[in-house]
Amino acid sequence: MTTRTGSPHLTSTATKSKNKTITCGACGGDLEPDHPGIQCLQGHHYCTECSTHIVRLVFSEPENYIPLRCLECHIELISSVFERQLTPDQVEIYNCLMLRLAFAKNFLGEDERLDDCPFCTNAIIRNINASYIFYCDHPECGKVSCLICRKACPKIEDDYATDEEIAEMEKHFKCAELADDKHELDRYVELGQKMPCPTCGLAGMKDGACTHMTCPKCSQLWCYFCGKKVEDCERARDSNNGIFDHNHNWERNPKRCPMYLTQLSELDNRWPEDEFECLAMFHRNRSLRLLREAFEKLGEERIKQVDDHFKTITTCGFSFKEILEEDLTLIKYPDIDKTRL
């Protein structure tokens, strides 16, 4: 009942002994009292492997995970407890993240944004409508870059640019023209590999357990398969088994969901029997569904322009034909004249 972002299923690496009473709050593995993983003031502990996973979560969505909090009780963590999990390279990135988030929260006006150089740690407060061409004034950098594609731009030293420099700058002007559509398409691609909490929006990919999710940020209980919080899930009237009632009789009720993805193969032979193959199939379907929605919103011609310039669709592994034509029926019910879309 945990979420993950781009990491393998969490397992404990701790060695068990007879006298241990401390367990990891994420994977349930036994821990030594003096283990080096994350600990909170309320006595919740995480093994080193799960602590590494927590670090990855923070770095993947810092705006949602900072200030740092325990995933169980949500009490703020002592920063040094988190920082000791970081590698030397991560420490520098973490310090920059904290500084930028502090600026964004406390100093930016409504008409301002914080832009950072793609090639160094320099960041500057600029008007929200400022150019996406960034001139870094750090004395050890000084590069010119495009904040959309995050690539270097020609640094024109005199009044006359060469034909090659003009052609290169025109590419970056095109980046600016397509920036909003690129951002929107990137959002659809990213969401295809995650499921967001229906209450706070914190998104991640589940592990190999059941479809019952508890959000580590707001504690909302929700269903990974349909994405609804337990209060909104279809359940029997006067039921008193919480989210488990949402799984009851799912084989015959398209508004309910299986507790485990592996149950789907018993009803629909398109689904594999392996848990992680099921998860991959689920997110493939979700990705195609969201990309089809993006096509309807932005239009095929605009999508093609974005893909020609940034290769967004090309690199995500789907063809235009798959996005626009593939059957996206999620569950086919063999003995009922219904389908789950």
Structure description:
The protein is α+β, with helices and mostly antiparallel strands and 341 residues long. The protein folds into three domains: 3-96, Herpes Virus-1 (2-Layer Sandwich), CATH 3.30.40; 108-176, no CATH class; 189-340, no CATH class. Helices cover 34% and strands 11% of the residues. A three-stranded antiparallel sheet has the order 1-9-8, with no helix packed on it. Strands 2-3 form a two-stranded antiparallel ribbon.
Task: Itemize the secondary structure elements and their pairings.
Blueprint: E1 3-4, E2 22-23, E3 30-31, H1 48-60, H2 62-65, H3 79-83, H4 88-106, E4 112-116, E5 123-127, E6 133-135, E7 144-146, H5 163-177, H6 179-191, E8 195-196, E9 203-206, E10 212-214, E11 221-223, H7 275-298, H8 300-310, H9 312-316, H10 320-325, E12 331-332, E13 339-340
Antiparallel strand pairs: 1-9, 2-3, 4-5, 6-7, 8-9, 10-11, 12-13
